[in-house]
Structures are given as structure tokens and as C-alpha cells.
Design brief:
- The protein has 477 residues and is α+β, with helices and mostly antiparallel strands.
- It has a domain at 61-91 and 153-316 and 356-473: Outer membrane efflux proteins (OEP) (Up-down Bundle), CATH 1.20.1600.10.
- It has helices at residues 2-20, 65-75, 77-98, 150-217, 223-258, 282-292, 294-314, 356-423, 429-463, 466-473, and strands spanning 61-63, 103-116, 130-148, 266-268, 320-333, 336-348.
- The strands form 2 sheets. Strands 2-3-5-6 form a 4-stranded antiparallel sheet, with no helix packed on it. It has a two-stranded parallel ribbon with strand order 1-4.
- The radius of gyration is 39 Å and the shape is elongated.
Length: 477
């Protein structure tokens, strides 16, 4: 009966915690939002979350952010796929150039023949119906050159613009790799801070449990104080296990992004930095983005390439000039031969194509409209990315300041609660609540610092030249 009465007395205290599940402390109103569990979500789609690993696993590595970015720029799948696309654009440009260059070929033939005139319907009195066998050879070199073809000229120019756009896409892909690697690296630093905080909380909870156990054994505190401390200890141990698991999973995710060999172990060599950013107005950042963003410059070139392709379609109505020539030698043998040649020049006209040229022009108009719409959308996207990154940066900086003060106050509260419990003027409920406040304040500071640095990464991507911009925003690190 005493045990039943004790359990009933415990229910009002722990029922809210059990209803929420383990390790769910009440967050203070100023706390930064917790990062969602379940692994990293990296920018740029699935390709930028993969890589092409090289080599075999070796001794443990000490990995800095700069080293991680360098590895990602060598091995990230998204960048490698984009580079392949750039090579294909270069091949298309060379193919378009080939249509404007002369075509030169050679031919050598040696023939041995015998003819039956009767098979052709010829019958001549006194003339044999079978002629031969006879022998002759022929050697020629031929050149063919399009003198004027407006469509080919414009196609080549469009292909050149597309090649430059593809090269800029590679540069933009490098920015996406920098963003993906930096985001993953900073997430691991935040995970490590959570693990350290969780270990500290487990140590504190263990000390509180030991004190409550000793006091209960000595008969100076009730059993509920010991049980309450034990529940708090188990809760902190569960949180530590979850934080260690998330830390290890995010390390695997970074290894996939930067192409580490399977089974390669590593440790980060940098701690989570917090450096306030020099104020940057949205207008300055947007102007910088239009100047530096490779995807924006690529989109501009794609519009020009589409406009040039339309000129090529219109050029199908123009005449084309063609020049063909060949020169060689023919005869029964090399020392019994004579030169032969042919020279031809002319113009070709498209008189009727059944509406094909009009359809090509309409298709080109549709592509131009599509490219312009994509450019306008990208302009809005750049504006949105810059402004939201600056808003996130300012909010996170304010949250860091509040979280630092809140953590200091929570630690003071915990110290006073422990002193009151040790002095016997209060039970350990105040201590448990104060410890929850410290845990919540610590998580808020970790999350706010991480979100502040993540906003810097997003801003570096938003303004372009992410590798250089990131070093600038992170204080030269």
C-alpha cells in the first residue's frame, strides 16, 4: 500500500514528461529552434550529396573546412556531372564549326574489267562481243566548301554561347559544392557541441543522483528525491546516446559529399566559430550577386544563345553558296596517265519546305520565351535568397546574444538550486527543473550559433563566388 501511495504521488509530477516522451525539456521563449533530427538535408539535390570515392581508407584524418571543400571540389558527383555537360557543349560547338570548314578527302582506285557487250544489247558485225580484260587507275583529291550559309554561321555562334554558359554552370556547381560541404561540416561541429553538452549534463545528473541517494540513505530526504534524480539521469543518458548517433551519421554524410573512401575515419580540426558579420545591406548584396553569380551569367548567355538560334532558323530561308572541286590523275598506269579535274560552284534555294522553316522559327521563339522566363525567375530567386539569408543572419545573431545570457542565468539558477537542496531547505525538484533549463539554454546557444554560421553559408552562396565569400564571412577561416 505504501508503494501504491508513493506511485500515485509521483503521477502529477511525471505524467507530463511521460506524455511528451523522454528527453523533451520545456524550451524557454527565447530559445533558438532545434535542428530537425534524422540527418542532413544538403543543397543542390541528390547529385551533390554523392561523390566518386578514390583510393582506400587509411589512417585517421584531421580534416579542416578548407581541406573538406578541396576534397569535395575533386570528388563531388554533382560537380563531375556538370563538368561532363560542359564537355558535351564544347563538342557541340566543334561540330557546329565543322559545318563552316572545308571538307577535304582523297580517293585512289585501281580497276581490272571485262565487259560483255551482248549483255547490254549491242551486236556489231566484226566486233567481238567481249571487250577486255583491261586495266586503269584513278587518283583524286576533292574539296568541298560552303561559301555562305547563314544558318550554319548562326548555329556556330549559338553553340559558342552555349559552351560559355555550360562553363559558367560548372562554376556555379562549384559554389553548390562549397555550400553542401560547409553546411555538412558545420552540422558536425554543432553535433559535437551537443554531445559535449549532453555528457556534461549526464555528469551533473549523476552527481545529483549520487547526492540524493546518499541523503535518502541517511534519512534526510524522501525517496521521491532519489527517484526524481534517477529519472533525470536516465533522460540525460538517452539524449547523449541520440546525440552521439546523430553525430556519427552526419560524419558519414560529409564523407559521402567529399568522396572519402569507405571506412575512412576522421576528426574535424576546427571548432564552431562565431564571428559577427560586417553589416551588408540587401542592395549591396544583390548587386554583388548579379555580378558574381555564375548561374545568373549563364542564364544571360542562354537567352542570347536562344536568340542567336532563332536567327539561324530565319537563315534557312536565305540561299547558300557551295563550292566543290577535285583534281587527280587517271590512266592505264602511273607513267601513262593524265590530270583530271572538276570545279563546281552554285547557289541553293529553299523554295518550299512545307512549313518546316516557320515551325523552326516558332520553336525558337518558344525557347527564347522559356529562357527569359527562367532568367526572370532566377532574378527573383537571387533577391529572395539574399534577403532571407540576411534576415536569418540577423535573427540568429540576436538569438546567440539572448542564448548566451540565458545560459548564464540558467547556470546561476542551477547552482542556487543545488545549494538549497544541499542545505535541506528545498527538495530536488528545483534542481531537476534548473537542470532542464540549463540543457534547454545550452541547446538554444548551440542551435543559434549553428544557424548563424549556416546563414553565412547561404549568404555566401547567394552572393556568388562561394569559396571566397565564405572565407570573408567566416572571419578569414
Amino acid at each position: 500500500m505504501k508503494i501504491l501511495a508513493f506511485v500515485l504521488a509521483m503521477l502529477p509530477i511525471y505524467a507530463p514528461l511521460w506524455a511528451q516522451g523522454p528527453a523533451t525539456p520545456v524550451q524557454p521563449a527565447t530559445a533558438a529552434p532545434n535542428l530537425p533530427a534524422g540527418g542532413l538535408t544538403l543543397p543542390g539535390g541528390s547529385q551533390f550529396q554523392g561523390s566518386v570515392p578514390a583510393g582506400q581508407a587509411g589512417p585517421p584524418l584531421r580534416l579542416s573546412l578548407e581541406d573538406a571543400i578541396a576534397r569535395g571540389l575533386r570528388s563531388n558527383l554533382g560537380l563531375l556531372v556538370t563538368q561532363t555537360g560542359s564537355q558535351l557543349a564544347r563538342i557541340d560547338r566543334r561540330r557546329a564549326l565543322a559545318a563552316l570548314l572545308p571538307s577535304v578527302g582523297g580517293q585512289f582506285e585501281e580497276n581490272e574489267q571485262q565487259l560483255d557487250l551482248a549483255s547490254f544489247g549491242f551486236h556489231f558485225p566484226g566486233i567481238p562481243s567481249v571487250i577486255g580484260p583491261f586495266h586503269y587507275f584513278e587518283a583524286q583529291a576533292a574539296v568541298s566548301q560552303t561559301v555562305f550559309d547563314w544558318t550554319s554561321i548562326k548555329n556556330r555562334r549559338s553553340a559558342m554561347q552555349s559552351e560559355r554558359a555550360a562553363a559558367l554552370s560548372v562554376k556555379d556547381a562549384r559554389d553548390l559544392v562549397v555550400q553542401a560541404v560547409a553546411s555538412a561540416y558545420l552540422a558536425i561541429i554543432a553535433d559535437a557541441a551537443r554531445v559535449d553538452a549532453a555528457r556534461s549534463e549526464v555528469t551533473t545528473a549523476q552527481a545529483l543522483y549520487d547526492r540524493a541517494h546518499d541523503q535518502h540513505t541517511a534519512g534526510v530526504s524522501p525517496a521521491i528525491d532519489e527517484l526524481r534524480s534517477q529519472v533525470e539521469l536516465k533522460t540525460r543518458q538517452q539524449e547523449l546516446l541520440a546525440d552521439v548517433n546523430q553525430h556519427d551519421k552526419d560524419k558519414l554524410a560529409l564523407g559521402r559529399v567529399i568522396g572519402l573512401p569507405d571506412g575512412q575515419t576522421y576528426e574535424l580540426s576546427e571548432a564552431e566559430p562565431y564571428v559577427p558579420l560586417t553589416p551588408l545591406t540587401p542592395e549591396q548584396a544583390i548587386e554583388r550577386a548579379y555580378k558574381n553569380r555564375a548561374d545568373y551569367q549563364s542564364a544571360l548567355l542562354q537567352v542570347r544563345a536562344a536568340e542567336t538560334a532563332r536567327e539561324a532558323a530565319v537563315g534557312e530561308r536565305y540561299p547558300t553558296g557551295q563550292f566543290d572541286a577535285n583534281y587527280g590523275a587517271a590512266g592505264v598506269s602511273l607513267d601513262n596517265s593524265h590530270g583530271i579535274f572538276t570545279v563546281t560552284g552554285g547557289l541553293r534555294f529553299n523554295i518550299f519546305q512545307g512549313g518546316r522553316i516557320s515551325a523552326d522559327i516558332e520553336q525558337a521563339d518558344a525557347v527564347i520565351l522559356q529562357r527569359k522566363d527562367e532568367l526572370a525567375d532566377l532574378q527573383g530567386q537571387i533577391d529572395y535568397q539574399v534577403r532571407t539569408s540576411l534576415l536569418d543572419l540577423k535573427t540568429a545573431a540576436d538569438q546567440v546574444a539572448v542564448a548566451q545570457d540565458n545560459l548564464h542565468l540558467a547556470n546561476q539558477t542551477l547552482t542556487q538550486a543545488r545549494d538549497r537542496f544541499s542545505a535541506g531547505v528545498a527538495d530536488n525538484l528545483e534542481v531537476v527543473q534548473a537542470q532542464d533549463s540549463v540543457a534547454a539554454a545550452s541547446e538554444s546557444l548551440i542551435s543559434a550559433t549553428y544557424m548563424h554560421n549556416l546563414a553565412k553559408v547561404s549568404l555566401a552562396r547567394a552572393v556568388g563566388e562561394a569559396e571566397t565569400s565564405l572565407k570573408e564571412f567566416m572571419g578569414g577561416k
